[in-house]
Design a protein that fits this description.
mainly alpha; about 280 residues
Length: about 280
């Protein structure tokens, strides 16, 4: 009991140390970037500024918004830059408890999920934002000055980044579901029509209320779902490469064997008590 308690406390101490290291890494990167906070926000706002009509500009309606919004953006960028180190700390904490075959699967999936998340954010920034902002601002009535609040713009950008980042994780989710045996490739193909409908529902929820942005989220999600099925077929299922224990091979212990096991356990317990 004491050994279990010491092990649990040592895990908590290790978790605390790794969280502190990750936090310090993010703070150090943030401090290194804080001098360029305004430039970083300008880079984030570039797609909207380029799409605004002539004379349109962004405003800060909150008293401290002009200060805090660039700081928030810089902190977000610092976290993304420090993300490899943060994930290394998480992996170093979890990896010792994994089996070798689990490590072989978990590490590539972790790296792929990070890359896909960045690809999703890049897709939103370079393709979705310019297209959607231009499309929306063209419908501004004549005589109306388009002025977007920087805090609301930041909230929109973060929501969109998160939506597209998570959307691009679909292949990883599909591979994991197939790999652990929760669903088969045949079942994934069978539910394809429902998945397509679900993609458009998600697109309608997490994008602005226009058909263009909904399609720009739903179509990649569907294509990534199909890509996940293709990769899942190459990686294989548990039945393909992992032997499973046959339930019919199980034989309950006889009375004599059970008594022998109980005597052995009692002898070990007695020996441990004498040692302590």
């Amino acid at each position: 009991m004491e050994d279990n308690q010491e092990t649990f406390l040592s895990h908590l101490v290790e978790l605390r140390d790794r969280l502190i290291r990750a936090l310090v890494a993010v703070i150090l990167v943030f401090l290194a970037l804080v001098n360029w906070a305004r430039d970083i926000y300008s880079l984030l706002a570039a797609p909207m500024l380029a799409a605004l009509p002539e004379g349109g500009h962004m405003i800060a309606t909150d008293v401290a918004g002009a200060f805090f919004v660039p700081m928030k953006v810089t902190l977000m960028v610092a976290f993304l830059i420090a993300l490899p180190y943060v994930l290394y700390q998480a992996w170093a904490f979890v990896a010792p408890g994994l089996y070798q075959h689990e490590k072989k699967l978990a590490l590539p999936l972790l790296l792929a999920s990070v890359v896909l998340f960045f690809v999703g954010m890049s897709f939103a920034y370079f393709i979705v934002f310019p297209t959607v902002f231009t499309f929306i601002n063209k419908f501004a009535p004549e005589g109306v000055a388009v002025m977007t609040d920087i805090d609301k713009y930041l909230s929109f950008v973060l929501t969109t980044f998160l939506a597209f980042g998570v959307t691009f994780e679909v292949p990883v989710v599909v591979i994991v579901l197939v790999r652990v045996g929760l669903v088969s490739i045949e079942k994934l193909k069978e539910i394809r029509p429902y998945v397509i409908v679900g993609c458009f529902v998600v697109g309608a929820i997490f994008t602005p209320p226009d058909v263009l942005s909904q399609f720009m989220l739903a179509v990649p999600m569907w294509l990534l779902y199909e890509l996940g099925i293709v990769f899942a077929r190459f990686i294989g299922t548990p039945e393909a490469d992992e032997p499973r224990t046959d339930a019919l091979a199980y034989r309950p212990l006889s009375d004599a064997e059970m008594n022998a096991e109980l005597d052995r356990a009692e002898a070990e317990s007695k020996t441990n008590r004498e040692r302590h």
